[in-house]
Amino acid sequence: SSTWNFSTLFLPPVMPVLLVPANLAAGQSLTPTLRWNSSPGASSYDVELSTDPGFASIIFQDSLLADTTRQVAGLLNNTTYYWRVRSRNSIGLSNWTPAWQFTTATTTNVYAVDAGRNLVSLPLIVNDPRKSVLFPTSVSSAFAFIPGSGYQQRDTLLNGMAYWLKFPSGQGVSISGSLVPSDTVAVVAGWNLIGSVSDDLDTSQVTAVPAGILASRYFGYTHGYSQTDTIRAGRGYWIKTN
Fold first, then answer.
1. What SS3 class is residue 200?
2. Strand order in 69-71's β-sheet?
3. What is the mean pLDDT of the chain?
4. pLDDT greater than 90 at residue 127
5. Which residues on neighbouring strands pair with residue 161, listed in sequence order?
6. In this structure, how many other beta carbons lie within 10 angstroms of the beta carbon of residue 82?
7. What is residue 159's predicted lDDT score, i.e. its pLDDT?
8. What is the spatial distance between Cα 203 and Cα 60, in angstroms, rounded to a whole number?
């Protein structure tokens, strides 16, 4: 017979699947990174972010993204956002994914650090307390002082504790989370390294339980140790108890 030819059909891409931030996630950063899975047949992606589930008021959108991540900036504290993604190729578009939502952190504060070594603490309740997320510009691991054991490296930071960190230059570190208006920190006999709450406070506002166990003044560190009467948010301090 004579030769005929045919072509197989090239279809629009499959709808992607959203990954991060998880649906209904709370306490998110004001500069979140949106992530979704790669979609079979897709050459690029469109993403939209809105303050309403019907996407009537879109506050951010981007198209023709070759990657499956997109960072968003300029969000507001304590606000719920909705986001969705669709994939595309030369034939057409997939449907939009079902919208996911997340809520940003209650507050965002900037904490000053110095070039070199710093005693820092975590003054907010955060969604992701890993050192690499909270202090991405630091050039050292985080080290906690454990009485009886000495310094130990920590990848995850805890409220109420303090850590040594090193920075290449003086700078401001932005942290988003919920306020810690008060805290109770366990201490042992001897020197203890403690953290702060969300606001600066006079050391006279600290209550020892039982009373009378304090055996020193509070010592902070800024290019050397010095006594202090103020516990500043985001800083760490030495205190000796009997």
1. coil
2. 18-20, 33-36, 69-71
3. 95
4. no
5. 194
6. 17
7. 97
8. 45
DSSP, collapsed to helix, strand or coil, labels residue 130 as strand
According to DSSP, residue 36 is labeled E
Q: Which residues pair with 124 in a beta bridge?
A: 179
In 3D, which of 21, 32, 39, 172 has the Cα closest to residue 93? 39
Q: How far apart are CA 15 and CA 40, in angstroms?
A: 8
Q: Could you check whether the bond before residue 21 is cis, i.e. omega within 30 degrees of 0?
A: yes
pLDDT, position 205 = 94
* Closest by CA position to 89, among listed 19, 42, 25: 42
Establish how many alpha carbons lie within 13 A of residue 208's alpha carbon, considering only the half-sphere containing its beta carbon: 17
Whole-angstrom Cα distance, residue 70 to residue 125?
25
Structure tokens at 236: 């760490």
8 Å CB contact between 231 and 218? yes
Q: Tell me how far apart the 2 most distant CA atoms of the chain are, in Å.
A: 105
Task: Please tell me whether the overall predicted TM-score, pTM, comes out greater than 0.85 for this model.
Answer: no
Phi, psi dihedral angles at 222 (to 5 degrees): -145, 95
